[in-house]
UniProtKB/TrEMBL annotation:
Keywords: Membrane, Signal, Transmembrane, Transmembrane helix. Residues 383-480 are annotated as: Disordered. Belongs to the PstS family. Residues 432-442, 452-471 have a biased composition (Low complexity). SUPFAM superfamilies: Periplasmic binding protein-like II (SSF53850). It comes from the Bacteria. This is Putative periplasmic phosphate-binding protein PstS (Catenulisporaceae type). It comes from Nocardioides simplex. InterPro entries: PBP_domain, Phosphate-bind_PstS. The keyword Transmembrane applies. The keyword Signal applies.
Amino acid sequence: MIAPVRRPLVALLAGVALLLGWAGTASAQDAAGRAAPYTTIEGTGSTWSELIVQKWIADVDANGMKVVYTGGGSSKGRKDFAQATNDFAISEIPYQGVDEKGNADKSDRAYAYLPIVAGGTAFTYQLKIGNQQVRNLRLSGETIAKIFTGQITNWDDAAIAKDNNGRKFPSLPITPVVRSDGSGTTAQFTTWMDDQYPSIWRGYFGRSGLTSYYPVKSGSRMTAQSGSDQVMNTVKGFAGNGSIGYVEYSYPVNANYPVVKVLNKSGYFVEPTQYNTAVALTKAKINPTTLTQDLKGVYVNADPRAYPISSYSYMIIPTAADDKRMTTSKRQTLADFIYYSLCTGQTSAGKYGYSPLTLNLVKAGFDQVAKLAKADSNVNLTNRDVRSCNNPTFDGKNPNHNVLADKAPQPAACDKQGAGPCGTETGTNKPSTDGKTPDSGTTDGGTGPSGQPGKVDPETGAPAGGPDAATGDGGTGGGNEAVYANPTLVADRTGDQRPFGVLAVVELIALVLVPGVASAFLRRRRQTRSRA
């Protein structure tokens, strides 16, 4: 009497077992069909770009890619690569040949540079009036250079008041926080000072050029910390009032901490949002052979939205066929990790305080990745190109169109030199809006360049009324429409999506159906017994 009731359950369980066995076989076949299985790869270097790199590593882990990345600074990354103790490095500057200390900064290990992510070097600070943290500080480049070379040492300095349209700050010593390790962030910052304020920087440094190791003069209040995270922690710490440090914008964004709005060549104070960085980098010149960056045009970009200290990070990858660390599996893992980083991974860049790479840089990056397959013909790069690349700056109809730069809103009128300052907080990863000015308490955009209130779109921070009310031109304006797709793994290689394949579907069917069938079986069995 019980046997007929059992048959559906037994049949279902047998079917599920069969499907599970087929799924396991299929998964094994998929794995075997891949050009090479993934294996762990290790990288070291930049802390400037580390936050987004760690995000990408977490994303690809679900696809079986194991990537380990340790910061320590760009100089360490380049040194580790040269000594063949890592599989890739990340740095904000290329090998210098000889560093500022006279040490070799080169690699006999064959390599290629490729861009990995863009961003802005930000100046985060702790400055309180009473117990109230200032969150809308503005500084010109000259003032910043003088602060970090010991010429301006107190927050009540007249130059700081002038940058803030007469607003005065407490008499409080300034504590500049710099990097103690060999840092690409330091190199980018000092390159900018050397180019834009040579007399200030060279008078302090003692010679021209950049440095990865920031010089700290004896007797100054300047303090040095290792890594971007330690600079950030020092500035926001309990004893940090009066301090100011330089880090990639992602660090204050993730710490919910303010940053300086820096005066650009158009006369606007701007912060390094993804938009302002994207606009600024439209003037970057790229060496077509090495992909190294010339940022002189970025520093003087006359667009009102441009953040002047914008740049990008390089990944350094091994290209020799006989590289002693590399195997087919390592090259395959590195190639696919780079593909994810250049494409879908860029959809997370803006949210983390970075700026996505543009089409020309992504194309150039793929050209460099191709060298991995040239070194080892077993590396499979099928469907790994810009045609299948999910990047938020791309316009499918116009490949040369930078979507992100066109979406960038114009600055608020209160961000104009001689107006405002705007009352809105910085470090929020949002474009500046009109907000309340500190003195008047109004909700307009402060005083515009003509002396009239600068009305600003509260959604975007752009001057209202069509053409840019602050500059008089049409600009490109734009709202703050969603720029990013939902980050997903673009993985069409056989076996890449096994965790989400047939096995998962079968398990779901089993979870849903088996309990129901089992319940029906038990219910019928009780009924049979009661009749007996």
